[in-house]
Hints:
Blueprint: H1 3-18, H2 21-28, H3 34-55, H4 63-87, H5 93-99, H6 103-115, H7 121-140, H8 147-174, H9 176-197, H10 208-236, H11 238-242, H12 248-260, H13 266-284
Membrane topology: Multi-pass membrane protein
Family: Belongs to the EamA transporter family.
Subcellular location: Membrane
Amino acid sequence: MDRMASGWVNGFIGMAIFSGSLPATRVAVMDFDPVFLTVARAAIAGVLGLGLLLGFREKRPARADLGPLVIVALGVVVGFPLLTALALRHVTSAHSMVFIGLLPLATATFGVLRGGERPRPAFWLFSGLGSALVAGFAVTQGLSAAPIGDALMLAAIIVCGLGYAEGARLSRHLGGWQVISWALVLSLPAMAPAALLLLPGSLAAVGRPAWIGLGYVSLFSMLIGFVFWYRGLAQGGIAAVGQLQLLQPFLGLVLAATLLDEAVSGSMLAVTAAVILCVAGARRFAR
């Protein structure tokens, strides 16, 4: 398997893992405070990341990599989890999943600004079209119904796109799992004490679904998914493989419907089918 094909396979696996993040977060915030959920998932994943780095005796990153690692941490360890957890207090996971369709455009943009990539003009046409379809659908569903939730989701998309692009750039010489592990470790001194400080007074009141949601976002969304995702972006290109995120709403909607019994309309599925075609077009003209 060549490097490009391997990048798309790894990227798809990472995207599939991430597709469960918002439904799991939606379940978790029913019983957990959003801020506690954010610091707890980062602390749990940080301990695991530290164990991996120590177990494989990884060298410390160079001083020049510390700034970019902080950007990764602020984007995907703190920013995106916190903003989405807050947003899901106001909107359903099915509604928020639609905004994930904007992530490819944000990731590709930061891939150009930070990663030095230069996709062909046709790539931007397909990427922009896919994002426009997602944004247009959100508008037709009535953004005014929950403006706070929608604003939080848009902010989450921006910081996440930056974190993805920066992490992919670092993965080219540090490795995918090493990047997310170091970012988690850098966050650990702040996240671990905060998790203990914000620990709910009565854990007995926390339902089993919330614990499962916390476990998923801590292990899969915060660590395992990034192992595949950053490797895929580094191998296949940030802008190109990043377009796989256009498929994430489809998988997320399926999970929201099957696990949370949330309504998934025919228009949601139609938009998702359309963006799949945009992914295919963007992939063809990515380089």
